[in-house]
Amino acid sequence: MPEPERKPRKDAARNRAAVFAAADSLFADCRSPEEVTMADIAAAAGVGKGTLFRAFGDRTGLIHALYEARLEPIRNAVEEGPPPLGPATPPLQRVPALLDAVLCFKLDNRHLAQALEGTGTDSPYRTEHYERWHTLLRDLLQRVPGAGDSDFTAHALLAATRADLVTYLADEKEMPREELRDRLSEFTAGVLGSTT
Fold first, then answer.
1. CA dist., res. 68 & res. 58, Å (int)
2. Per-residue pLDDT tens for 108-159?
3. DSSP state for residue 12 in the 8-state scheme
4. Tag placement on the chain: N or C end, fewer CB within 10 Å?
């Protein structure tokens, strides 16, 4: 008989929440994600560096855990929610909704997203979160008549939501959030319109 899953101790859950809050704040306020160190996060959270390394392994592990925790509401909406993100939504409505959700998430978490896209992998396109979005979009595009190469189209659409591009447009070009969303919507409609 399998052992019941152990719940984390209260102090471990409290430390995790404090670490995530500290990391959120540090990434939101930094000029560049590379500036944020494990020592900075530990100090801001009021925990020892050893606690961070035991819980997350390294900086990349912490960034992954924080990113996944922040992404969970969107992931739940995509996996089991109602339209326009949920699985019952027709592809022509769901693709733009998914891209809008990714864009808004990256606008709200751009330095964290940049940190994740820049973590020690040889390519940002080989990360678990990217592959998840790409696979979902590719599979939806395969259901669009005349979509052609759904694999490439999914990559091209996701390129418009890369954290470095979103940060550049929002911060350096000072493009307002709603304008960014409108531009992405128009771009997506153009791509989808050309496939039907």
1. 16
2. 998 888 888 776 556 778 778 889 999 999 999 999 988 789 999 999 999 9
3. H
4. N
Specify whether the CB–CB gap between 160 and 184 falls below 8 A: yes
Residue type, 142: Q
**Rounded distance, CA 135 to CA 158, Å?**
11
Q: Kindly report the pTM of this predicted structure.
A: 0.86
Identify whether the C-beta of residue 33 lies closer than 8 Å to the C-beta of residue 26.
no
Q: Is 136 exposed, middle or buried (0-12, 13-18, 19+ CB in 10 A)?
A: middle
Max Cα distance, the chain (Å): 59
* Range in 75-79, 103-107, 109-113, 138-142 with the lowest mean pLDDT: 109-113
- How far from each other are the two terminal CA atoms of the chain, in whole angstroms? 54
